[in-house]
Amino acid sequence: VMLKTKEVWVDDVAVYAKTEDDEVAYYLFSQWSSLSKATKEEREDFFLSYSGIHWPQLGEDLSFEGMFSNANLCKRTASEDSIAYWTEE
After folding, report:
1. Could you please report the per-residue DSSP string of 20-84?
2. Rounded-to-integer distance, Cα 16 and Cα 71, Å
3. Separation of alpha carbons 28 and 31, rounded Å
4. Model-level pTM?
5. Fewest beta carbons within 10 Å, which of 43, 50, 78, 79?
6. Burial category of 56 from C-beta neighbours within 10 Å (exposed 0-12, middle 13-18, buried 19 and up)
7. Does residue 58 contact residue 42 with C-beta atoms inside 8 Å?
């Protein structure tokens, strides 16, 4: 099962990702020291790659596959980049 990510956003407590099927997964910022200590501006300064979300100022990277597998939307693979992905349209 391939999950294509169509939207990513942050609020004060978490980062969220939505699939093309409107399934939503999230990670709480409290799970990562760098994200929990970051300012709102630093959390909002991310970019998306094929396999995940990247915060260059914070040196943090989270994979879509890890996020979606934690939400029981897919199974985790060894490479963590083959099931859930993002492409610019």
Report:
1. TT--EEEEEGGGSHHHHSS-HHHHH--EE-SSEEEETTTTEEEEHHHHHHHTTSS---SSS-SSE
2. 11
3. 6
4. 0.84
5. 78
6. exposed
7. yes
